[in-house]
Design a protein that fits this description.
about 40% strand, single chain, Jelly Rolls, about 130 residues, five-stranded antiparallel beta sheet
């Protein structure tokens, strides 16, 4: 009987621990939404069932937190230079030119404005 009580206690502890861990994860399977985790830099301009359009703005030197975007198209409003750090710790500095549009595959990153001017971009996230 004592063994059964210990086993039941361990199973119950495991279920509780799993529930706490699952509840602590960000929505979307652990993929942090930039609008929720960094509202200072990310503003929703438009959203429907197909797309979400974000206005992104960083002052010189500012950086975000690690977050996720689905496949997207970025339209740069200003010239700038950003540093993107991926979850594996690798970083890459990328120049941007106002008026240029780029495709970005889905993924997580931590961006930083490493330029000397405000950096602004419109990001069209695809939902389908």
């Amino acid at each position: 009987m004592k063994t059964l009580t210990i086993a039941a206690t361990l199973v119950l502890a495991g279920v509780i621990a799993y529930g706490v861990a699952a509840h602590a994860q960000p929505a979307g399977g652990g993929k942090a939404d930039p609008v929720k985790v960094d509202a200072k830099h990310y503003k929703v301009e438009f959203e429907n069932e197909s797309v979400r359009v974000l206005r992104i703005s960083y002052a010189p030197g500012e950086k975000s937190v690690m977050h996720y975007h689905p496949a997207s198209v970025a339209v740069f409003l200003t010239d700038g230079k950003t540093r993107m750090t991926t979850p594996d710790g690798k970083s890459e500095d990328t120049p941007a030119k106002a008026g240029v549009a780029n495709w970005a595959p889905a993924g997580s990153h931590l961006p930083q404005n490493v330029g000397d001017k405000r950096f602004e971009v419109i990001l069209v996230e695809l939902k389908k």
